[in-house]
Amino acid sequence: MSGSSVTTRPARPKTSGPGRTLIVFYFIMTIAALARSIFEIVVHLGTAPFAYLLSLFAGIVYLVATIALITPGRRAFRIAATAITIELVGVLVVGTISVADFGLFPFSGDRSTVWAYYGLEYLLIPLALPILGLLFLRSQRRVFAEA
Q1: Residue 20: pLDDT band with limits 50, 70, 90
Q2: Strands, E, within the chain: which ranges?
Q3: What φ, ψ does residue 13 adopt, rounded to 5°?
Q4: Phi, psi of 142 (to 5 degrees)
Q5: Residue 75 lies in a domain
Q6: Residue 8 resides in a domain
Q7: Do 23 and 66 form a contact (C-beta atoms < 8 A)?
Q8: By the 8 A CB rule, do 126 and 26 touch?
Q9: Which residues constitute the domain of residue 63?
């Protein structure tokens, strides 16, 4: 044997398999959060302005993450990582506050937000999505760098 060659498996493109599924979930959450918050802000902002504006912020974070996950390059990777980290911190902070003080974001009624109760109204997807997103970014670092 003159030399040992190590064969490495090429990285899967981020728009195939799990990457495509993740992007679809981010897109769905973007639409859900933005549609709900815009409707609530237009129809009755005075009822719970903090919750509705927080949902709008969550929708914008989802939008930024979705666009960054689709976009190639190192800058997009950094933007996606930042947006998804903000999302995770937001879900954990708002979720914890909502569990600690039920009066801030009542579970029944229309004064809740996307991240309240760790996203329970959205089947806990807001809690799982940033964790899966950060794991995905970690596995796709090379793909983003090559683009």
Answers
A1: very high
A2: none
A3: -60, 145
A4: -65, -40
A5: yes
A6: no
A7: yes
A8: no
A9: 18-146
Cα–Cα distance, 90 to 63 (Å, whole number): 15
pLDDT tens sequence across 65-76: 999 999 989 999
Residue 103 — very low, low, confident or very high, per pLDDT cuts 50/70/90? confident
Count of domains forming the chain:
1
43 assigned to some structural domain: yes
CA proximity to 56, closest of 81, 39, 79, 43: 39
pLDDT score, position 142: 79
**pLDDT band at residue 23, thresholds of 50, 70 and 90?**
very high
- Tens of pLDDT, residue by residue over 41-64, are 999 888 888 889 999 999 999 999
CA 82, CA 120: separation in Å to the nearest integer? 23
Q: Is residue 132, in this structure, part of any structural domain at all? A: yes
Q: How far apart are CA 63 and CA 136, in angstroms?
A: 17
Q: Is 5 exposed, middle or buried (0-12, 13-18, 19+ CB in 10 A)?
A: exposed
